[in-house]
C-alpha cells in the first residue's frame, strides 16, 4: 500500500530528463495533454492573426461564413498533423528533433534542427512582444516597454526549468481561468450586432485555410517534446486533437468578431476586448496566460539544441535561451512580416511532416527507426521533402523583403517556366503535403530494403 502511494507520488512529481539519453517519465494523461494544447491554441497573436483568414493577402475580404469555415477546416487539418506528430514522440520516447534522427540520420537531422531552433526563437520573441503589447494595452502605455519584456522573460524561463510541473500547473489552474475569460468575451461580442454571414467573398477560401493550418502546423516540430511524457498514444493523440483544435477555432472566431468591430484593423483589436464591461479583468487573464506560449518555444528550443548537444544539462540550455529570447525581444517591434513568417514555416514543416509520418508508418519505421547518435544518413528522404517544399513555394511564394527580395522573384520565374500558377482554389499546404507523402510512399519499398539491410 505504502509502496503504491510512494510510486504515485513520484509519478506526480516526475520531471523531464536533464540530458537527451535518459528515458522520459510518463506522468501525463489525457487531461494534461488536452489542457496544455488548449492553452497553446489560445493566443493574443491568434486574435489579431485572424485577419489573415478574414482577408488573405491579395484577395477580397471573405464573408464571415467563409472565414469561419476556413478556420475550422484549416485548424482540423493542421491539428491532425500535430496530433500524429505527437504520437511519434509517445511511441519513441524521444523529443521532436531526435525523432528525426530516424528519418534523416543523426547528422542530417541537424538541418531541420537548426531550422526549428530559428523558428522557435522567432516565435519566442514574438510572444514576449505580444505579452508586452497586452500589458501596455491594460495600462494605457504606462511603464517602460523593456521592463515588461524582462518580467515576461523571467517568468517564461522559470517555467522551463520545471516543464512537467508547469504543464500540470496549467491544467489545474490556468485552463479554467482561460475558459471563463473566453466564454465571457464570446457572450459580450455575440450580444453586439454582427454583419450578415454571407456578406463578402469566398474567393480566398483556400489561402485562408492555409493560414489557419500554418498556425497549427507551426507546433508540429515541437509536439513530441511534450507528448513523449504521455502515458499512452491514445491519450496523446486525443488530448492534442481535442485540446488544440477546440481552442484555436474558438480563439479565431473571437478574433474574427473582434476584427469586425474595428473594421479589420488588427492593431486596434485589443480595444475591442477592453471596451466591454469588465473586459480589462478577463483580458488580463489572457495576457498572463500568454506566457505558456513563450514557455513552449523556449523549452522546445532547448530540446532542439539537445539533438546537437545531447549531454548538456537542459536547465542550462533553457536559462541561456530564455535570456537570448528576452534580449532579442527588447529589440523587435515590427510584426509586418508575420503572415510571411507563417507561410514560410508551412512550406518547410508541412511536407516534412508528410515525409516523417509516411516513412514511420509505411516505410523503414515499420522495422524500427535507428535514433542513436550513430544513426546513418538517409539522403533519399531529402527528395520528397524538397519536392513538397518546392510545390508549396510554387503555389504560394513566400513574400520576403530586404536582402531576400530575390526569393519570391525566383519562384515567380519558376511558375512561368513550369506553367504552374496558383488559383483561388489552390491550397499550397494540401498540395505540398500530397506531393511529399506520395513520393515518400513510392520510395517506401526502397527505404524498407535499406533499413533491413542495415
TrEMBL record:
InterPro entries (alphabetical): CodB, Pur-cyt_permease
Domain of life from the UniProt record: Bacteria
Primary location recorded for the protein, binned into one broad class: membrane
Cellular localization per UniProt: Membrane
Transmembrane regions: 34-55, 61-88, 108-126, 146-165, 172-190, 202-224, 236-260, 272-291, 312-329, 341-363, 375-395, 422-444
UniProt entry keywords in alphabetical sequence: Membrane, Transmembrane, Transmembrane helix
Molecular function in Gene Ontology: cytosine transmembrane transporter activity
UniProt xrefs under Pfam families: Transp_cyt_pur (PF02133)
Protein's membrane topology: Multi-pass membrane protein
GO cellular component, one term: plasma membrane
PANTHER family xref list: CYTOSINE PERMEASE (PTHR30569:SF0), CYTOSINE TRANSPORTER CODB (PTHR30569)
Family the UniProt entry places it in: Belongs to the purine-cytosine permease (2.A.39) family.
Full protein name: Allantoin permease
Amino acid at each position: 500500500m505504502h509502496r503504491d502511494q510512494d510510486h504515485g507520488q513520484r509519478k506526480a512529481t516526475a520531471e523531464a530528463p536533464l540530458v537527451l539519453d535518459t528515458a522520459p517519465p510518463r506522468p501525463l494523461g489525457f487531461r494534461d495533454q488536452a489542457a496544455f494544447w488548449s492553452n497553446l491554441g489560445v493566443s493574443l497573436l491568434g486574435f489579431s492573426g485572424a485577419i489573415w483568414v478574414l482577408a488573405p493577402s491579395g484577395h477580397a475580404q471573405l464573408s464571415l461564413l467563409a472565414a469561419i469555415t476556413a478556420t475550422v477546416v484549416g485548424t482540423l487539418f493542421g491539428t491532425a498533423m500535430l496530433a500524429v506528430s505527437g504520437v511519434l514522440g509517445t511511441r519513441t520516447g524521444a523529443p521532436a528533433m531526435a525523432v528525426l534522427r530516424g528519418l534523416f540520420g543523426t547528422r542530417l537531422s541537424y538541418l531541420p534542427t537548426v531550422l526549428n531552433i530559428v523558428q522557435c526563437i522567432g516565435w519566442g520573441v514574438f510572444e514576449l512582444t505580444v505579452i508586452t503589447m497586452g500589458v501596455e494595452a491594460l495600462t494605457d502605455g504606462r511603464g517602460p516597454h523593456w521592463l515588461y519584456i524582462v518580467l515576461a522573460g523571467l517568468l517564461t524561463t522559470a517555467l522551463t526549468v520545471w516543464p512537467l510541473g508547469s504543464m500540470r500547473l496549467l491544467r489545474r489552474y490556468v485552463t479554467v481561468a482561460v475558459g471563463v475569460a473566453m466564454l465571457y468575451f464570446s457572450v459580450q461580442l455575440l450580444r453586439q450586432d454582427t454583419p450578415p454571414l454571407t456578406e463578402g467573398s469566398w474567393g480566398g477560401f483556400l489561402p485562408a485555410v492555409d493560414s489557419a493550418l500554418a498556425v497549427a502546423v507551426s507546433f508540429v516540430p515541437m509536439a513530441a517534446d511534450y507528448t513523449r511524457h504521455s502515458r499512452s498514444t491514445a491519450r496523446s493523440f486525443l488530448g492534442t486533437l481535442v485540446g488544440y483544435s477546440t481552442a484555436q477555432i474558438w480563439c479565431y472566431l473571437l478574433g474574427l468578431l473582434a476584427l469586425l468591430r474595428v473594421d479589420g484593423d488588427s492593431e486596434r483589436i485589443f480595444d475591442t476586448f477592453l471596451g466591454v464591461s469588465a473586459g480589462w479583468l478577463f483580458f488580463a487573464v489572457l495576457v498572463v496566460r500568454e506566457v505558456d506560449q513563450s514557455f513552449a518555444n523556449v523549452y522546445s528550443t532547448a530540446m532542439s539544441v539537445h539533438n546537437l548537444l545531447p549531454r548538456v544539462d537542459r536547465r542550462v540550455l533553457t536559462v541561456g535561451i530564455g535570456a537570448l529570447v528576452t534580449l532579442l525581444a527588447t529589440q523587435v517591434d515590427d510584426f509586418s512580416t508575420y503572415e510571411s513568417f507563417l507561410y514560410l514555416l508551412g512550406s518547410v514543416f508541412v511536407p516534412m511532416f508528410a515525409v516523417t509520418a509516411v516513412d514511420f508508418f509505411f516505410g523503414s519505421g515499420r522495422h524500427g527507426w535507428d535514433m542513436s547518435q550513430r544513426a546513418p544518413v538517409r539522403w533519399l528522404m531529402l527528395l520528397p521533402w524538397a519536392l513538397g517544399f518546392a510545390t508549396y513555394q510554387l503555389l504560394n511564394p513566400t513574400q520576403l523583403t530586404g536582402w531576400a527580395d530575390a526569393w519570391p522573384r525566383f519562384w515567380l520565374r519558376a511558375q512561368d517556366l513550369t506553367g504552374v500558377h496558383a488559383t483561388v482554389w489552390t491550397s499550397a499546404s494540401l498540395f505540398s503535403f500530397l506531393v511529399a507523402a506520395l513520393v515518400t510512399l513510392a520510395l517506401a519499398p526502397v527505404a524498407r530494403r535499406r533499413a533491413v539491410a542495415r
